[in-house]
Design brief:
With 422 residues, the chain is of the alpha+beta class. The chain has 18 helices and 11 strands. Helix 7 runs parallel beside helix 18, helix 9 packs across helix 18 and helix 11 packs across helix 12. Keywords: Heme, Iron, Metal-binding, Monooxygenase, Oxidoreductase.
């Protein structure tokens, strides 16, 4: 390995950054496509910002996802999930390369195929309506994260993957926090490890239950393990990924979309009046402020040039999907929320072989969630100052941990049939 002189990293942290990272991303894009950055945990990475560079990076065959490619500098800071959970839960699709990634991905794609998602749309609408029916009454502020955004995606996911009600009802949302591990010396480490053990025990219960029969993706994954197609670590890791990555980003995307609409009341009122715009509006909201702010780690097996920057082998490379989606070279007037913008060209779900397999489900959930909330809650608006919204301190994602709202009176009755775009 050759010696490399590394530039000082740009910090990606702090409340101001989490609330609005786009000015910093704009400065980075103007300076060049690749920048060395520093995360709060002390992990450094090479961040790719522009749209064209991001798209090429996501499809670059030199970059692998397997954590075994990471060097000692990266591993000392980032690979800190304890054993045995690290070995058992960290070999899912996001950490795999071909040919193993190809085999594992093939097992789940059919469950999330657009035709299957479309067939489930009436049931997903029922789930959304039931949550609106149950919203607290009385005109007091309602936290849409607690009462809707954190519940609807999980209930939808349970339907898709075949998680039975007796297990779905026992899933704890705080288990999702294990994707952001704390260091061995952090005071919160014991609580983190307890969450991790609880989630691992829950996954074991899911496997035992689905081995007993039943339909759905979870039962098929257990069967694939029993026939030797998956190792036990791969099975547990894929269930881990489904339960955590399969719902939390949609929860966060509901919040970023609603915040964007609250900040653009004319767009909110237009979308309420013209529900046929919902499919294109969702694409624009995904582009405008994606819950997948940054991708997960990628690594070069040897020192190489990446868009004109020399990157050492084993250093982590991350793509800023949010920065790419606000690139003026790809999107005219990118900081404007434009419901009439051409759809389908953003990178909110990634690109290449690691393109999000649940994209069709996420789109359907967002269309139903936003359509239901705007249609059934008259006068929906923020109930707290925008500047005080609690943005989650996650390294890779964007969203608010609470979203207090008000609306005018009781929810409108459910429509007799879903409207267009719902």
């Amino acid at each position: 390995m050759i010696a490399v002189s590394l530039p000082d990293p740009v910090p990606l942290s702090g409340p101001a950054y989490k609330r609005d990272p786009y000015p910093l991303y704009a400065r980075m894009r103007e300076a060049g496509p690749v920048h060395r950055v520093l995360f709060p945990s002390g992990v450094t990475a090479w961040l790719v910002t522009g749209y064209a560079a991001a798209q090429r990076t996501l499809a670059d065959p030199r970059l692998g996802k397997n954590h075994a490619l990471g060097n000692d500098r990266w591993r000392a800071r980032a690979s800190i999930m304890p054993e045995p959970q690290h070995s058992r839960l960290q070999v899912h699709l996001l950490h795999q390369d071909a040919p193993r990634h190809t085999v594992m991905r093939r097992l789940i794609t059919d469950a999330f195929a657009p035709r299957r998602v479309e067939a489930l749309r009436p049931r997903l609408q029922e789930l959304a309506d039931a949550l609106v029916d149950a919203l607290p009454a009385g005109g007091e502020p309602v936290d849409l994260v607690e009462h809707f955004a954190a519940r609807f995606p999980f209930r939808a996911l349970a339907e898709v993957i075949g998680l039975p009600p007796h297990l779905a009802g026992r899933f704890r949302r705080e288990w999702g926090k294990v994707v952001a591990p704390v260091g061995p010396d952090d005071p919160g480490r014991p609580a983190y490890e307890a969450l991790l053990r609880g989630l691992e025990e829950y996954i074991a219960e899911v496997v035992a239950d689905r081995r007993g029969g039943g339909d759905g993706l979870l039962a098929r994954l257990v069967a694939a393990h029993d026939t030797g197609e998956l190792t036990r670590a791969e099975l547990d890791s894929m269930i881990f990924q489904l339960l955590v990555a399969g719902q939390e980003p949609v929860t966060n995307q509901i919040t970023t979309a609603l915040v964007a609409l609250f900040r653009h009341p004319e767009a909110l009122e237009r979308l309420r009046a013209e529900p046929r715009l919902m499919p294109s509006a969702v694409e624009e909201l995904l582009r405008y402020d994606s819950a997948f702010e940054l991708t997960t780690w990628r690594f070069l097996a040897e020192d190489a040039e990446l868009h004109g920057t020399r990157v050492p082998a084993g250093d982590s490379v991350i793509v800023s999907l949010c920065a790419a989606n606000r690139d003026p070279e790809r999107f005219p007037d990118p900081d404007t929320l434009d419901l009439d913008r051409d759809r389908g060209s953003h990178l909110a779900f990634g690109h290449g072989v690691h393109y999000c397999p649940g994209a069709a489900l996420a789109r359907a959930e967002l269309r139903i969630a936003l359509g239901t909330l705007l249609t059934r809650l008259p006068g929906l608006r923020l109930a707290a100052p925008d500047a005080g919204l609690p943005w989650i301190p996650a390294v890779l994602g964007r969203g608010t941990s609470a979203l207090p709202v008000r609306h005018d009176g009781c929810p409108y009755a459910r429509p007799s049939s879903p409207g267009e775009g719902r």
